[in-house]
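If your schedule permits, I should be very grateful for your opinion on a structural question. I would ask you to consider whether the tokens describe a fold that such a sequence might reasonably adopt. Thank you for your consideration; the sequence and its tokens are set out here.
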Amino acid sequence: MFCVEHLNALRLAEIEKTLPYLRPVGARVLELGAGTGQQALELERHGFSVEAIELSDSNYAEDRLFNITDYDGRHIPFADASFDIVFSSNVLEHVPDLAGMHAEIRRVLKPTGYAVHILPTHAWRFWTTVSAFPTAFMYAATIRGQLVPRLSRNVAEIRRLLGAWYRAGLYLLAPFGQRRHGERGNIISETWLFHPSWWRRNFRANGFDIIEDEPLGLFYTGHMTFGMRWSLERRARLARVLGSATHLFELKASGSPKAQATAVVNPVEVSHAPV
């Protein structure tokens, strides 16, 4: 069940795993789709100079913890060659025009700069779909006390009881109406579209070389079924069996100094092995 505090805890854990890829300390970082700003704030605490941008109508607009610049989702509101690092976390899958966004990222990166993207995986998509069913029962259970008739049998009580059963029915039927998470495909095809192999091909087709490429090693789902009752340690253990929820890519624009000097870590174009 959705909880901003739980989401922030997961994002902070991912930042801890991402910090070794962000260098040097003091670099100027742009975070795309900053959400609440929790990760931008954490990066600033670690000594980075951070700018953060987000859609003005974001779901997290009321929970912002950082000075975030609103933007239109297409044009990054900064000058050419402004940043050492462009960072995003669970954002690119929501971008309708990926080619345009990649071009914007290349534009605002310095010649020696690079991008670090964290993306949901096919494992996240699969387990998010499956976990919708137990989550629905958990939601319904939160109002089970309202489903029992009270002593009075007046019209108001009948309306209350019917309303409670209606809400419970909606909770239980919700898993059958699941929609895609990102901008492409559906909940079935997203299992492929979220696979790291798809992103490898997309990055290369849009002018980036892959420098680093690995799972971040935490298991969770979009429904947050067990929330903060499951520790990060348990989630790390589960990721080794059920798959990592997210995958990290470090990219350099093709032809840039670092891209020429660094070998691609994972040159395999297509892989169906779980992460």
User: Anything to note?
Assistant: Confidence is low (pLDDT under 50) at residues 263-275. Strands lie at 28-32, 49-55, 69-71, 83-89, 109-120, 208-215, 246-253. DSSP finds nine helices and seven strands in the chain. The domain at 4-125+186-261 is CATH 3.40.50.150 (Rossmann fold).
